[in-house]
Amino acid sequence: MIMKIKSIVSILFAALVLLSCHNTGGGRSQELFPIIVDNKIGYINNEGKVVIEPQFGRVGRFAESRAAFEKNWKWGYINEQGEVIIEPRFDHSGFFSEGLADVRIEQRWGFIDTLGNIVIEPRYVAVRAFSEGLASVRTEEKWGCINKKGEFVIEPVSEMPLHFSEGLAAFQDSAGWGYVDKIGDTVIAPQFTAVGMFSEGRAPVLVGDKWGFIDPSGRLVIACQFDFAGTFTDSLAPVKVGEKWGFIDYTGAMAIEPQFDLAYTFIDGLAGFRMGNRWGYVDKSAKIVIPAQFAFIGHFSGGLAPVLDTLGTRLYINRSGRIIWKAETPAQK
Fold first, then answer.
1. Residue 265 per-residue DSSP state
2. Is residue 121 part of a domain?
3. For the chain, what is the domain count?
4. What is the CB neighbour count within 10 angstroms for residue 265?
5. From the CB of residue 43, how many other CB atoms can be counted at a distance below 10 Å?
6. pLDDT in tens, 93-127
7. What is the pLDDT of residues 299-312, one digit of tens each?
8. Which strand (E) or helix (H) includes residue 274?
9. Domain containing residue 305
10. Is 310 within a domain?
11. Cα distance between residue 170 and residue 225, in whole Å
């Protein structure tokens, strides 16, 4: 029974992390953070005030001031006040990105605009959200990329979806991993064992058993020397050296010496880290601003981060570590 309860808590916390860490989008007047009360989802602001009362069983993440919700097995969208702005009529819905959201009608996916009008007919087996003007879509056999008119810019020839970042998307063939541009031309030939996405002009790549970084021309700008590497954010990238994680700068020099058992990327000036079985946060000067004390953590966004304490209680904390919202335990109800 204890293990079952812990599993349920972990699942609910994971839902909070996924929803809150991607709570982004253009034109937002405020940041909203999902909370779960009595298995219903609502939202608070960064002061801990309930803005949308817990009432939903399933929701998507807020993006571009809208979030998908499910009612009677159909999906629609609410605004930041919790008002229904697109009535539930889809079999499933994704989040808005660049003014369009992916929706499923029966077994096919297409895209709607912010008014709920279908602008790209549901004809695809699977889709990904629009990024940099393109969306990856799957026909019966392969993945390709369409523009916002629904026209194929890259024909469906890929075995996996293409996600563009800084104008390039990773792809794989028999020779390894490489990158294509937004018209489908190969700009970095397949040659790597594994790769990450481009961020801040660099992408992590694996050659043999070591990771380094390349620039958009494919030139190796940081030698392959790390046991693992993440992407650059806030001018730093997490890297693993031996059994410990630290952070490097654009030149490959250590900005924060390897000392953590695991480290996340920096977001809003803070990065999560793990020491033993506890998590905390470090800033870019290597100062531990929130000591390792939590069982699980999410990224900071809009001044708050979702965390789980050692008793399994769901919390939101601010950048100083102060608790802004705390889920009620059964004993408190």
1. P
2. no
3. 1
4. 17
5. 27
6. 999 999 999 999 999 999 999 999 999 999 999 99
7. 999 999 999 999 99
8. strand 270-275
9. 233-333
10. yes
11. 21
